[in-house]
Amino acid sequence: MKDCSADAGAAEALLADGRLALLGGNDDEMFDQLARGASGVIAASSQVRTADFVRLVDGLRAGRLSEARRLWRELLPLTRALFAEPNPVVIKGVLARQGWMGDGCRAPMLPASRDSVERAWALIERGAGRTPGELSRR
Fold first, then answer.
1. What is the spatial distance between Cα 38 and Cα 138, in angstroms, rounded to a whole number?
2. Which of 11, 18, 95, 127 has its Cβ near the most Cβ atoms within 10 Å?
3. Which residues have a Cβ under 8 Å from the Cβ of 131 and sit 6 or more positions away?
């Protein structure tokens, strides 16, 4: 079951019951839910820096808590930046900047502000340790 409730008690009850596999659905809660035993996450923010999100999940599953915690502390500001405006507009703006798609949304949504995309882009660059050209698909 995908949990987007933001109710840690409800998520814990599902995990304790054990009859359903829990998938985290709120990106900013993924570390906590995985650490408590969620089977996985459905995370929009993993569309960027995907390999780092995979390393986070793998680290938690393998019991490498300090490594996963360090990585999560690096990814959390990015996750928050990607949700600075209604999902998925900032993520789409970043993906457009990388050349993966056009920068557009269906009505009634509007594209992300330039400032929000730039803040997220700066966090992507800093965390990825790559030049902007290496981050682009083009």
1. 36
2. 11
3. 125
DSSP state of 27: G
CA distance 132 to 122: 9
Cα–Cα dist 120/115, whole Å: 9
Question: CB of 2 within 8 A of CB of 10?
Answer: no
Q: Which residue in this structure is represented by tokens 């209604």?
A: 86
d(CA 136, CA 47): 13
What gap in Å lies between CA 61 and CA 4, rounded to an integer?
Answer: 21
| Length, in residues, of the chain | 138
Q: What is the pTM assigned to this prediction?
A: 0.84
Q: pLDDT, tens digit, for every residue of 25-47?
A: 999 999 999 999 999 999 999 99
CA quadruple 39, 127, 115, 80: dihedral sign: positive
Q: Are 48 and 95 in contact (CB under 8 A)?
A: yes
Environment class of residue 73 by beta-carbon count within 10 Å: exposed (0-12), middle (13-18) or buried (19+)? exposed
Report the DSSP beta bridge partners of residue 40: 23
